């Protein structure tokens, strides 16, 4: 009888598998050291789980550039920096371009390895106050339409981060939280560059403050990076884009298993390393799927 009970308990624990992209960073902008599997620790909640696989991600990437159509038209001064960045990406990277307007996305160019064609599709934003509505609703919608892809999937969003659909005055914006959840479930990293919006909101301290906070939380919780220069529009995008290029070149695919009787779901995760001179950046939650 004891043997039978033991067998039933063991069988009830599902083998669950998770895979996520992790970015390695160097301390104080120094070169990023090579990080091996033995240097990595993974925690689901408070429990450490063994690392299954850890390998450099240098290959296939779909990078979606999403530009807020409600941005100030001065954004045109930064488009050359964006074009240079896009053209400089490796041949294994496919680039797509969408503009965000009225809570949805307008595709200007589908994912393509022709970086020059994608770069040429960039245009000035409309620059009309209110057309942005919510970049987070637009992001959620776009993620749901994103076809499965074997490699990495990442977003570079250019926006003020201001959400005119939410007036709660706090960080619990439901549209932001849904976008984070959708990105985490899909394993998509979201990076952003802050750029002020047209109209009154573009110089409202209250709205700019929350817009930047939303973008920062979006990056932190999806494993991406948020770039800004105080409340001023950046003089140039080039320094941010150079840093983003380095991040894309220092990413790893982490895979691990856990034993659980829970159904597939998003779970809190922490990835860390004690490798000297290195830090790891990853999403705060990961989708755990049934391995059966």
Q: What's the architecture of the largest domain, going by CATH? A: 3-Layer(aba) Sandwich
Tell me the strand percentage band. 25-35%
By CATH, the topology of the largest domain is Rossmann fold
Low-confidence stretches: 1-12
Number of helices: 7
CA(first)-CA(last) distance: 26 Å
Q: Rg, please? A: 20 Å
Notes on the protein architecture:
The protein is of the alpha/beta class and 292 residues long. Helix content is 27%, strand content 34%. It has helices at residues 2-12, 79-87, 115-120, 135-145, 174-186, 205-222, 238-248, and strands spanning 14-26, 40-44, 47-49, 51-57, 61-68, 93-101, 104-112, 152-159, 189-194, 226-227, 251-260, 265-273, 278-281, 285-290. The strands form 2 sheets. Strands 1, 2, 3, 4, 11, 12, 13 and 14 form an 8-stranded antiparallel β-sheet that branches. It has a 6-stranded mixed β-sheet with strand order 7-6-5-8-9-10. Helix 5 (174-186) links the parallel strand 8 and strand 9.
């Amino acid at each position: 009888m004891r043997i039978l009970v033991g067998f039933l308990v063991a069988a009830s624990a599902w083998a669950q598998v998770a895979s996520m992209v992790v970015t390695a960073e160097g301390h104080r902008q120094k070169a990023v050291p090579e990080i091996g599997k033995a240097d990595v620790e993974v925690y689901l909640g408070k429990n450490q789980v063994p690392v299954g696989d850890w390998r450099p991600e240098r290959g296939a990437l779909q990078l979606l550039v999403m530009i807020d159509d409600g941005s100030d038209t001065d954004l045109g001064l930064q488009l050359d920096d964006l074009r240079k960045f896009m053209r400089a990406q490796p041949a294994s990277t496919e680039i797509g371009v969408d503009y965000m307007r009225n809570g949805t996305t307008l595709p200007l160019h589908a994912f393509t390895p022709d970086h020059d064609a994608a770069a040429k599709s960039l245009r000035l934003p409309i620059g009309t106050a209110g057309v942005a509505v919510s970049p987070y609703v637009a992001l959620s919608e776009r993620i749901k339409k994103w076809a499965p892809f074997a490699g990495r999937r990442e977003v570079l969003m250019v926006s003020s981060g201001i959400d005119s659909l939410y007036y709660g005055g706090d960080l619990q914006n439901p549209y932001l939280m849904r976008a984070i959840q959708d990105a985490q479930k899909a394993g998509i990293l979201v990076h952003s560059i802050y750029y002020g919006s047209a109209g009154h909101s573009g110089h409202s301290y209250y709205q700019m403050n929350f817009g930047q906070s939303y973008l920062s939380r979006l990056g932190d919780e999806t494993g991406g990076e948020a770039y800004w220069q105080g409340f001023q529009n950046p003089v140039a995008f080039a320094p941010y884009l150079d840093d983003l290029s380095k991040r894309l070149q220092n990413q790893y695919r982490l895979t691990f298993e856990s034993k659980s009787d829970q159904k597939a779901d998003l779970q809190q995760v922490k990835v860390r390393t004690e490798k000297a001179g290195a830090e790891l950046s990853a999403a705060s939650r990961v989708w755990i799927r049934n391995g059966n």
